[in-house]
């Protein structure tokens, strides 16, 4: 993808992207801080997040054991992650490949091996307990450290890759590839069984190494939490694995510390955490040990510090977790975010993380057909990939780098405009066309304004219109000029043109007869271009209606035939169907204003009509999708099916009687107008 393509894509995306960053909100708050108070009546703003780093204190011997674990993982075949169905995904990448089957197979086998190693190391970075759970199951791992029953519900128990891969032995994947020379482990049951048994033996050997690793990592995290609670009344700690949190809770058992474990299988504890950590809470000396089930859409802003027990290796995960504290109505001016500094042997490597995120992306977008163990759902399927072209696959991922990436991402987000950025730039910033005092006067004005109209001098006639929204539609901007081109409706294009026309060389002029005549001319023209104000999908839906509806119109009345009677009366349904279809086509092709019973001018809302049509053809869409191999269907792909399966007359008739179909004409929805009048009309 070239620079021009990227620019075009960015311009398209920002047409429907609306976003305000924390920095932008804080800038607005700085303008009038008294206007922003939380429900306690205190001044508020987004707090500053200060990143802190803590050492995990692995011993030198521990690091040598990790090197031994990595060496053992390199010998795995990854049989637990080999696809159950050998099939090349239906995507442009593989359709255009010279040897898609062979290339996909080689990549899949490499990915399976890499994924097997990734999950063991990711679990081990959480805790030894989590690593043993992954290898041998929840109950087996817990019983090695504690005599008491497993604190997790049976449905939350997971792992046991050793037994899983052993049971898989001899069960060959279904082959849908066209190549004949597949590896023996994919075609011979005995070879497959031997490969699976070898993986199980390696898992056993890795388990023995993990049991020799000291508890320095877990002990260091527990000491950090206990120390932080001396300075912070409420503290949140995140880790991806519930068993790690339960193990940490045993280490923190102290009369001075109250512990809450908030995971997806403990909804009551989650509710309790939300109560104790809400704004205004007077709770104290509580640590909430949370999985990422608590990392989204939850307010925990009473806490002033967060500890990441495992390192979020993508920026979005870090933002989601820190966002529980970083709320606009927070009472804290600053919050702390503590991230682990793993030793070189323990630290995640970019290549390992990349292969996992790529797998999740393929699984989500193309429908991967291998099921990951439940405890391995560490990454959000929508997380962004880290670009790996400019960095080595062996680069360590450090907490400093993750924080730096987050800061850079925030700066990029500040620079990327959204759909309303061009509009805001007209009234805010160094290049604003409207003076701040003028904007504030009208923004704060209490008077009810029906419409505002003004005129300026221009080289050629034009008019800029602001349309009020309807019950089913948003407000719109429209720019019309004397050219034969259709009206402009894109915010960015309109604002660029206004900036060009309304510079220092555009003095205001009186709104006289010439300006009024010009405005009326454009208003009449506006009513004939209402379809251009609709989203592209609705425009396409109306175009398809114009193509399909004539096919449903009977050419002549049909006659009923019953009991072989060829002289039966004409079918009474045919005239009714003709009337309904003609009425719909009239709305589409000869739309115009009408008078309501109370004398008001009304016109059809084509956006409502398009919505009704899209709802009507939903069953057809589902039916075509079931029989098509294409992942994305277009409206034109339904033409043949809709032509062969016409809706009933009563269904078509419903399109005409939906409430809200008739609205005020566009010219009556104009709330502000700016008219550019040429000097020769004076």
TrEMBL record:
<dbReference type="InterPro" id="IPR001650">
    <property type="entry name" value="Helicase_C-like"/>
</dbReference>
<protein>
    <recommendedName>
        <fullName>Helicase C-terminal domain-containing protein</fullName>
    </recommendedName>
</protein>
<feature type="domain" description="Helicase C-terminal">
    <location>
        <begin position="198"/>
        <end position="384"/>
    </location>
</feature>
<dbReference type="Pfam" id="PF00271">
    <property type="entry name" value="Helicase_C"/>
</dbReference>
<dbReference type="InterPro" id="IPR027417">
    <property type="entry name" value="P-loop_NTPase"/>
</dbReference>
């Amino acid at each position: 993808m070239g620079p021009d393509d990227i620019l075009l894509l960015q311009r398209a995306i920002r047409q429907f992207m609306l976003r305000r960053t924390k920095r932008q909100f804080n800038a607005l708050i700085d303008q009038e801080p008294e206007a922003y108070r939380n429900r306690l009546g205190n001044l508020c703003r987004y707090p500053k997040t200060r990143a802190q780093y803590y050492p995990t204190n692995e011993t030198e011997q521990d690091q040598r054991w990790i090197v031994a674990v990595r060496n053992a993982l390199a010998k795995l075949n990854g049989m637990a992650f080999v696809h159950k169905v050998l099939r090349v995904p239906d995507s442009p990448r593989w359709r255009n490949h010279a040897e898609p089957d062979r290339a996909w197979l080689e990549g899949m086998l490499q990915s399976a091996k890499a994924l097997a190693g990734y999950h063991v190391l990711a679990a081990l970075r959480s805790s030894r307990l989590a690593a043993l759970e992954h290898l041998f199951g929840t109950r087996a791992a817990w019983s090695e450290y504690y005599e008491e029953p497993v604190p997790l519900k049976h449905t939350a128990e997971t792992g046991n890759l050793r037994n899983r891969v052993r049971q898989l032995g001899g069960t060959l994947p279904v082959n849908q590839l066209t190549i004949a020379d597949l590896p023996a482990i994919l075609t011979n049951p005995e070879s497959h069984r031997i490969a699976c048994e070898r993986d199980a033996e390696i898992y056993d050997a890795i388990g023995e190494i993990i049991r020799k690793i000291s508890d320095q990592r877990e002990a260091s995290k527990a000491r950090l939490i206990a120390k932080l609670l001396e300075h912070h009344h409420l503290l949140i700690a995140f880790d991806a694995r519930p068993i790690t949190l339960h193990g940490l809770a045993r280490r923190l058992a102290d009369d001075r510390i109250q512990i809450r474990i908030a995971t997806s299988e403990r909804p009551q504890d989650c509710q309790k955490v939300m109560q104790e950590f809400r704004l205004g809470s007077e709770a104290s000396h509580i640590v909430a040990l949370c999985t990422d089930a608590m990392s989204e859409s939850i307010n925990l802003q009473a806490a002033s510090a967060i500890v990441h027990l495992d390192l979020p290796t993508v920026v979005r995960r870090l933002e989601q977790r820190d966002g529980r504290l970083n709320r606009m109505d927070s009472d804290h001016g600053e919050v702390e975010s503590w991230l682990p500094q793993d030793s070189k042997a323990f630290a995640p490597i970019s290549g390992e993380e990349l292969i996992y995120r790529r797998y999740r992306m393929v699984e989500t977008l193309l429908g991967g057909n291998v099921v990951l163990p439940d405890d391995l759902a560490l990454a959000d399927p929508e997380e962004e990939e880290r670009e790996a072209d400019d960095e080595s696959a062996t680069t360590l991922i450090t907490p400093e780098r993750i924080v730096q990436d987050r800061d850079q991402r925030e700066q990029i987000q500040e620079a990327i405009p959204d759909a309303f950025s061009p509009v805001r730039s007209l009234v805010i910033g160094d290049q604003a066309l409207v003076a701040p005092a003028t904007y504030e006067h009208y923004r704060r004005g209490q008077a009810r304004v029906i419409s505002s109209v003004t005129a300026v001098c221009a080289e050629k006639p034009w008019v800029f219109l602001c349309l009020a929204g309807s019950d089913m539609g948003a407000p719109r901007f429209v720019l019309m000029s004397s050219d034969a081109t259709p009206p402009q409706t894109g915010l960015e294009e309109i604002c660029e043109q206004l900036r060009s026309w309304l510079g220092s060389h555009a003095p205001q002029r009186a709104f006289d007869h010439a300006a009024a005549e010009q405005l009326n001319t454009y208003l009449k023209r506006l009513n004939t271009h209402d379809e251009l104000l609709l989203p592209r999908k609705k425009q396409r839906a109306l175009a398809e209606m114009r193509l399909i509806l004539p096919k449903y119109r009977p050419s002549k009345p049909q006659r009923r035939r019953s009991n072989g009677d060829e002289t039966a009366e004409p079918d009474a349904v045919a005239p009714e169907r003709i009337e309904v279809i003609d009425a719909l086509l009239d709305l589409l092709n000869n739309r115009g204003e009408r008078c309501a019973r109370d004398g008001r001018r009304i016109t059809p809302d084509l956006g409502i009509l398009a919505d009704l049509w899209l709802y009507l053809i939903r069953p057809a869409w589902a039916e075509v999708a079931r029989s098509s191999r294409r992942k994305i269907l277009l409206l034109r792909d339904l033409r043949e099916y809709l032509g062969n399966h016409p809706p009933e007359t009563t269904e078509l008739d419903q399109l005409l009687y939906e409430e809200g179909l008739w609205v005020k004409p566009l010219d009556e929805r104009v709330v502000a107008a700016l008219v550019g009048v040429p000097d020769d009309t004076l």
